[in-house]
Amino acid sequence: MASVLSLLSCVVLVLAASFNPTRGQLDPCFYDKLCPHALPAIKAVIEETIAVEPRMGASLLRLHFHDCFVNGCDGSNLLDDTPFFTGEKNAAPNKNSARGFEVVDRIKDAVNYACGGNVVSCADILAVAARDSVAALGGPSYQVQLGRRDSTTASAAAANSSIPAPTFDFDRLLANFNSHGLSLVDLVALAGGHTLGFARCINFRDRLYNETATLDSGLASYLKSQCPLSGGDDNLAPLDDTPVRFDTSYFDRLLRRKGLLHSDQQLFKGDWGGADGLVSFYSSNPEAFAKDFGESMIRMGALSPLTGSAGEIRLNCRRVN
Ligand code: HEM
Ligand SMILES: *[C@@H]1O[C@H](CO)[C@@H](O)[C@H](O)[C@H]1NC(C)=O
Ligand SMILES: *[C@@H]1O[C@H](CO)[C@@H](O)[C@H](O)[C@H]1NC(C)=O
Questions:
Q1: CATH architecture under which domain 27-163 falls
Q2: pLDDT in tens, 47-65
Q3: Which of 167, 210, 223 has most ligand 3 atoms within 8 Å of its beta carbon, as the pocket-test mutant?
């Protein structure tokens, strides 16, 4: 019965998707015939992984974001550096920060076994892993579009310039999202991804010591004990009060001047301009946040995918075939 229902919802959503030009050539049913066991295999690895280490859900969500914002969702950020190839793993936004690559390797092995061959792209693995991680941590389970193929190239320069930095002010955050064809609603809903996970001291030190006017003083003194003026660059602090639970605590905190990153607090400045209204709305409407987050993830997941015969299905997500 469950599989009949999921097949039905797939067909219904394909009809709906065919009226939506932003979804390009991706298709939620892409693996239904090619490998019906692919999606359950991914979900099983995600659930096992998160049961052992809940933070990994956050890390996998972020990997999909960092893939899609750099020349589209094509698995480019999974390629290892070699003496002859420079990938994105050591670009500024990823170095000592992006994590979850071993989980992607385990998923790749599991789907290749479940499918009896190499049919599922690394880019699709990231999209499904992000969705299943969000769902496993209490968030929405939206329908993921599929059929992406993997790049044969990567760009450290594009990773440096295309992923927004935590030092950005509101206007720059919005301009960055607009440059990817995403809106203000997408910016606020997707920044809500910071309902999960942690950041390193090096990314919020300036805010602690230089932005006292916009930072709650109780939180500031606690965070200073975790993140001294010098040293402890990699010490972690949670992005909201419940870093392994998908909820609206991130938005609640912004309303109380408790955003961890400068970029987070830029989404609520207290002047009712910019994104203030949306942050306030999501903080008291968890269902609207969950729905908009799912829709924005689908839009982000559709950024310039390689489809058809473009790119390849990598055998190993860490290197081109
Ligand atoms: C709006 C612009 C954004 C900026 C400036 C930003 C910046 C950051 C920074 C600096 C960190 C901490 C990294 C570290 O300290 O190692 C982080 C973590 C994270 N980001 Fe973002 N981010 C943004 C948007 C997003 C989006 C759109 C998503 C996903 C939809 C996302 C998901 C995450 C998650 C889940 C973590 C925690 C990862 C973990 O614990 O491993 N972020 N982000
Ligand atoms: C990316 O940024 C890092 C850190 O700022 C820098 O060391 C590196 O050279 C940059 N790479 C490219 C290709 O621009
Ligand atoms: C605070 O801002 C000043 C002036 O911009 C800068 O020199 C200093 O390095 C900053 N301190 C921290 C801890 O970021």
A1: Orthogonal Bundle (1.10)
A2: 999 999 999 999 999 999 9
A3: 210
Two tokens at 95?
């170095």
Tokens of 57: 């859900």
The pTM assigned to this predicted structure is 0.95
Query: Crossing angle for the helix pair 184-191 and 170-179, nearest 10 degrees?
Result: 110
Phi, psi of 258 (to 5 degrees): -115, 20
Choose, from 37, 64, 66, 262, the residue flagged as catalytic. Answer: 66
Annotation marks residue 66 as catalytic? yes
Residues having CB within 6 Å of any atom of ligand 3: 205-206, 209-210, 229
pLDDT digits (tens, 9 = 90+) for 9-20: 565 555 454 444
Residue with tokens 């709650």: 216
Q: In this structure, what token pair is assigned to residue 179?
A: 């440059």
- Quick one: which ligand is closest to 173's CA? 1
CATH architecture of the domain with range 170-295:
Orthogonal Bundle (1.10)
